[in-house]
Design goal:
By secondary structure, this protein is mostly helical. 74% of the residues lie in helices and 0% in strands.
Length: 129
């Protein structure tokens, strides 16, 4: 009985991973086409399933920044990522931008300075305005 429960739990967890792959592929396709509005919905679902996934946090934040909805919602995702990938100037630039949209200007200046210092003044980002 105990082993059958473990086997069933293992199979269900693997099934969830396989079910998530098509959703992730859809999100990646939308994101690469810069269809941030539709990608936002996909990455919200993926993030809900795996809130510690750095890539989902990143893509969700970029979607927020590139849509004209709640750009400030990107802050928490980028703060999380900045702790995991603190040497990436692009993350700090996006965090500065998110702070700016949140009217947190002092924090934005600090984040922009980090981006500039880490990237030696060469921060290349892919954001549409």
């Amino acid at each position: 009985m105990k082993y059958s429960v473990c086997i069933i739990a293992t199979l269900l967890s693997r099934l969830c991973v396989f079910a998530q792959a098509p959703l992730e592929d859809k999100g990646d396709a939308l994101f690469s086409k810069r269809n941030y509005i539709e990608a936002l919905d996909v990455y919200k679902k993926l993030f809900k399933e795996e809130p510690d996934n750095v890539e989902y946090n990143y893509r969700l934040a970029v979607c927020y920044l590139n849509t004209f909805t709640n750009r400030a919602d990107a802050v928490s995702h980028l703060e999380y990522i900045s702790q995991k990938r603190s040497k990436n100037p692009e993350i700090w630039y996006y965090l500065g931008l998110a702070y700016q949209y949140s009217n947190r200007f002092d924090d934005a200046i600090i984040a922009y300075e980090k981006a500039k210092n880490i990237g030696s003044g060469k921060v290349v980002v892919n954001i549409e305005r």
